Amino acid sequence: MSAAAAVGCSGFKAMATVRSGRSGHKPPHVLTVAGSDSGAGAGIQADMKACGALGAYCSTVITAVTAQNTVGVQGVHVVPEDFVAEQLRSVLSDMDVDVVKTGMLPSISIVKMLCRSLKEFPVRALVVDPVMVSTSGDVLASPTILAGFREELLPMADIVTPNLKEASALLGGISLKTIADMQSAAKSIHTLGPRTVLVKGGDLPDTMDAVDIFFDGKEFHELHGERISTRNTHGTGCTLASCIAAELAKGSSMLPAIQAAKTFVGNALRYSKDIVIGRGPQGPFDHLFQLKSHIFNLNSNDHHFNPDDLFLYAVTDSRMNKKWGRSITNAIGAAIEGGATIIQLREKEAHTREFVESATACMEICRSHGVPLLINDRIDVALACDADGVHVGQSDMPVSMARSLLGPNKIIGVSCKTPIQAQKAYLDGANYIGCGGVFPTTTKENNPTVGLDGLKTICLASKLPVVAIGGISVGNAGDVMGTGVPNLKGVAVVSSLFDRECVSAETQRLRSVLMDATSAVKELS
Ligand SMILES: Cc1ncc(COP(=O)(O)OP(=O)(O)O)c(N)n1
Ligand SMILES: Cc1ncsc1CCOP(=O)(O)O
Ligand SMILES: [Mg+2]
């Protein structure tokens, strides 16, 4: 196989499109030939997750089915050679595989048959993880496969990735205790025919960090990685080799592929170091940490949405603040002091930088008081200042899109005037509905009113909590809450708080009107 020329080639996608004979985009494709791990930490399952996480398609030829968990390997069922051959033929004859990665190859006849298949259907690169013994110490391949590795598979490989035990086994049982030993092992394994060798030193005693030795046929590269203290290391070998394969399939050359793979494994271990799966000594780690760290980690400070937060919803207005000579931070501070339960920054005229800066300052105030802060219209500003959520209207970014950008924990409110909009709000993943204008207002132009009847209709049409908005003040807030619809949770107001001289006093007055009205409704029901 002449993978040397192909690995690291550019213009790969165009070539792949021609090969597939169809127009459209062909994703980078890794075929893993390995064993299934019922615990899903290693083997085929790890390979699929690793390739998927790095953006490569992963097809699978299963050589054995293992019964294993975090304690060890309880059983191995080897797939008959003919059926491994059939799987290989199915995938390789049809799917334009870029890179083959091998894991558990339980018998020499399977090794030999794989080599024949690869000669019949050449691929761009072959990554061999010479799996022999599981991390729990269980034997996964008969020692006779060593001959198959040495004589047939390794000469075809672009890289072979033994750990210390495997390197030792490939070299007849020599002892490997130092970095110098690893270098000489890498060189000796290279003489067996692979284009490059990575000897993994995770088990090397007396080293502060994990050192791997990469030999490219000419030079040694010492690759250092932080040693992460965790029990969750099951599947690191499979994952590293699969990541290398995925990077090669994407067009990387060998050394950058190894570096990217090491970074991925290091980050996965760091993210997963405290997860608990299984009762045994060695647990799996989370290959999909990138998805979760984006969505979950960043949001560790998120305010957990409580529909009662909508009770007294203060919405800012830059024109009013200007008129009264207030900064936005003063305005929201006063509203919180007066008893506002949620704040929305509705800054229609602000430039982005100014908006991000003031929103960040407001976030600090709100967080210190445990009051959620939402951003009107601007998902980007909400993300930038890690706000608790957004409020969007029917002509703003769709709720479903905002949800996928903000993740599951942020609060999303949406304006609705019709029952259909209200039903869709729930299906799209909104947390609440803003319904209005209920009454006429000069704060928002060209905004037809729905009245108290329209408000009730919206409330009844949705399971979501609703906040009423538009022309609401101390004079009519009692009527609004007096509708008594259970999911009407409060009122949102702009001018009756911020177009007044004393924001905190107006907020207090409104709060007591709302409290009286809700107690009256409770008494009636
Ligand atoms: C709580 C609440 N409800 C409704 C709105 C109005 O949002 P939208 O329809 O997007 O109009 P603008 O506020 O963007 O002019 C709101 N802001 N808050
Ligand atoms: C933003 C908005 N959406 C519907 S009405 C309205 C304006 C509410 O302002 P005010 O409380 O001053 O009537
Ligand atoms: Mg809007």
Automatic annotation (TrEMBL):
Domain Pyridoxamine kinase/Phosphomethylpyrimidine kinase: 37-281
Catalytic activity: 2-[(2R,5Z)-2-carboxy-4-methylthiazol-5(2H)-ylidene]ethyl phosphate + 4-amino-2-methyl-5-(diphosphooxymethyl)pyrimidine + 2 H(+) = thiamine phosphate + CO2 + diphosphate; 4-amino-5-hydroxymethyl-2-methylpyrimidine + ATP = 4-amino-2-methyl-5-(phosphooxymethyl)pyrimidine + ADP + H(+); 2-(2-carboxy-4-methylthiazol-5-yl)ethyl phosphate + 4-amino-2-methyl-5-(diphosphooxymethyl)pyrimidine + 2 H(+) = thiamine phosphate + CO2 + diphosphate; 4-methyl-5-(2-phosphooxyethyl)-thiazole + 4-amino-2-methyl-5-(diphosphooxymethyl)pyrimidine + H(+) = thiamine phosphate + diphosphate
GO MF annotation terms: ATP binding; hydroxymethylpyrimidine kinase activity; metal ion binding; phosphomethylpyrimidine kinase activity; thiamine-phosphate diphosphorylase activity
Localization annotation: Plastid, Chloroplast
Pfam families referenced in this protein's UniProt entry, alphabetically: Phos_pyr_kin (PF08543), TMP-TENI (PF02581)
Names of required cofactors: Mg(2+)
InterPro entries, sorted: Aldolase_TIM (IPR013785), HMP/HMP-P_kinase_dom (IPR004399), PM/HMP-P_kinase-1 (IPR013749), Ribokinase-like (IPR029056), ThiamineP_synth_sf (IPR036206), ThiamineP_synth_TenI (IPR022998), TMP_synthase (IPR034291)
Alphabetized UniProt keyword annotations: ATP-binding, Chloroplast, Kinase, Magnesium, Metal-binding, Multifunctional enzyme, Nucleotide-binding, Plastid, Thiamine biosynthesis, Transferase, Transit peptide
Thiamine phosphate synthase/TenI domain boundaries: 312-496
GO cellular component: chloroplast
Annotated pathway: Cofactor biosynthesis; thiamine diphosphate biosynthesis; thiamine phosphate from 4-amino-2-methyl-5-diphosphomethylpyrimidine and 4-methyl-5-(2-phosphoethyl)-thiazole: step 1/1; Cofactor biosynthesis; thiamine diphosphate biosynthesis; 4-amino-2-methyl-5-diphosphomethylpyrimidine from 5-amino-1-(5-phospho-D-ribosyl)imidazole: step 2/3
Superkingdom as given in the UniProt entry: Eukaryota
UniProt record, GO biological process: thiamine biosynthetic process
Function statement: Essential for thiamine biosynthesis. Bifunctional enzyme that catalyzes the phosphorylation of hydroxymethylpyrimidine phosphate (HMP-P) to HMP-PP and condenses 4-methyl-5-(beta-hydroxyethyl)thiazole monophosphate (THZ-P) and 2-methyl-4-amino-5-hydroxymethyl pyrimidine pyrophosphate (HMP-PP) to form thiamine monophosphate (TMP).
Family: Belongs to the thiamine-phosphate synthase family.
Protein name (record): Thiamine-phosphate pyrophosphorylase
Naturally occurring in which organism (per UniProt): Acorus calamus
